[in-house]
């Protein structure tokens, strides 16, 4: 029983972290129809921003999370305007090649600059509570609560704000969105920035709950794609549900059996979901 | 002249869809472009809206050149496009679609009033305002499309095949609405395959054939023209 509580909390926090990365990826895909392979690199860079801010310079933790989100938002927006905008409307392979190139450049420079040793970020919250024999750390609870709040905030932003409506409009039909007066180019960099910032915040979670290395982006991208495909391309709710499923599998199976089995099982689950729902749990049919 | 198109050309790759077309629209007028599918009618509207860049010619609005301006600038100036096939944001609610029509309007009071005005005009939309617009019937979707365009408080309305796929009863309603909009001071460019309907609504008509104007004139003259009657009115 106590084991399950502990695995449950670990699964929830992992799942939320995966969901944040995947929501960012699905937002970028949904709005721009580009496959951003370097999304995991944004996750990695976001973690290192917080690492240098908090662990190296000793500046306040939560401010560091905000700084990381803002810096990576800016980076995402600049990447969109400088690299991806000129390729807009061209064959998807061009942007694919650019994002793959970014993976190599960013993770390679990361290893040179940050070093290849594993690093951790001390957290702002300490202590925990014993509940029926399970030790539940406050750190995990606070971080989970913050990520839930962020996901809800993003969801409300997309539902309620005019810019959020515009993002959804551009995702659904860019030409008609332009006919309403929406500057689609502006929506593109906002969505790219927002999506990247979500990954950065997930990176901060990763550094705090687990550990970070400059090469961790690649696996994050793979997991994000698994989740997005499972949840349905372009769906925020799908990314959240998919993230939770993957987080739970990772937590429970890694603790009870092994990490390799967890990875295999996640793929089996995705296969099964795609057999019965080819466009994912909450996917629309993209033409 | 409110809106003038001079010698407009539009290319898609190597294909020339519009081959030097000139049109003019006066304040309070309805003009119509009729012709078969692929005659270049929609391309002309897209070029005016800034959705495609003309490869030649000029578009003048209130005497100023607007060709090459991005779509958001054209909307800002008061020229709004009701695209072919409604093109609603189908996953979004009726209300959200209307809200987006007034995207450039910073006055939230006026936006809320605008939504109420659309609901007063089309009461059925008030009932369905929280439904995804893709779930509505064709006629109701056309109401949303027109309502969305009116949200921008346009001076010129570019309507692309508003009667397409609608029931005869619904077509009558849309026709009555177009007459009403003109009375309210709007100027309208109406693109139609239903030439009979279009010529009865419009003051002036242009007949397009493969990207060029084959014939033009006051609507009543075109209606009595034997050529037009044979080719477009099914007489």
From TrEMBL, chain A:
<dbReference type="InterPro" id="IPR052157">
    <property type="entry name" value="BCAA_transport_permease"/>
</dbReference>
<keyword id="KW-0812">Transmembrane</keyword>
<keyword id="KW-0472">Membrane</keyword>
<protein>
    <submittedName>
        <fullName>Branched-chain amino acid ABC transporter permease</fullName>
    </submittedName>
</protein>
<keyword id="KW-1003">Cell membrane</keyword>
<keyword id="KW-0813">Transport</keyword>
<feature type="transmembrane region" description="Helical">
    <location>
        <begin position="141"/>
        <end position="158"/>
    </location>
</feature>
<comment type="similarity">
    <text>Belongs to the binding-protein-dependent transport system permease family. LivHM subfamily.</text>
</comment>
<feature type="transmembrane region" description="Helical">
    <location>
        <begin position="61"/>
        <end position="84"/>
    </location>
</feature>
<dbReference type="Pfam" id="PF02653">
    <property type="entry name" value="BPD_transp_2"/>
</dbReference>
<feature type="transmembrane region" description="Helical">
    <location>
        <begin position="224"/>
        <end position="249"/>
    </location>
</feature>
<feature type="transmembrane region" description="Helical">
    <location>
        <begin position="189"/>
        <end position="212"/>
    </location>
</feature>
<feature type="transmembrane region" description="Helical">
    <location>
        <begin position="91"/>
        <end position="114"/>
    </location>
</feature>
<keyword id="KW-1133">Transmembrane helix</keyword>
<keyword id="KW-0029">Amino-acid transport</keyword>
<feature type="transmembrane region" description="Helical">
    <location>
        <begin position="12"/>
        <end position="31"/>
    </location>
</feature>
<feature type="transmembrane region" description="Helical">
    <location>
        <begin position="261"/>
        <end position="279"/>
    </location>
</feature>
<dbReference type="InterPro" id="IPR001851">
    <property type="entry name" value="ABC_transp_permease"/>
</dbReference>
Automatic annotation (TrEMBL), chain B:
<keyword id="KW-0547">Nucleotide-binding</keyword>
<protein>
    <submittedName>
        <fullName>ABC transporter ATP-binding protein</fullName>
    </submittedName>
</protein>
<keyword id="KW-0029">Amino-acid transport</keyword>
<dbReference type="InterPro" id="IPR027417">
    <property type="entry name" value="P-loop_NTPase"/>
</dbReference>
<keyword id="KW-0067">ATP-binding</keyword>
<keyword id="KW-0813">Transport</keyword>
<dbReference type="InterPro" id="IPR003593">
    <property type="entry name" value="AAA+_ATPase"/>
</dbReference>
<dbReference type="InterPro" id="IPR017871">
    <property type="entry name" value="ABC_transporter-like_CS"/>
</dbReference>
<dbReference type="Pfam" id="PF00005">
    <property type="entry name" value="ABC_tran"/>
</dbReference>
<dbReference type="InterPro" id="IPR003439">
    <property type="entry name" value="ABC_transporter-like_ATP-bd"/>
</dbReference>
<dbReference type="GO" id="GO:0005524">
    <property type="term" value="F:ATP binding"/>
</dbReference>
<feature type="domain" description="ABC transporter">
    <location>
        <begin position="3"/>
        <end position="235"/>
    </location>
</feature>
<comment type="similarity">
    <text>Belongs to the ABC transporter superfamily.</text>
</comment>
<dbReference type="InterPro" id="IPR052156">
    <property type="entry name" value="BCAA_Transport_ATP-bd_LivF"/>
</dbReference>
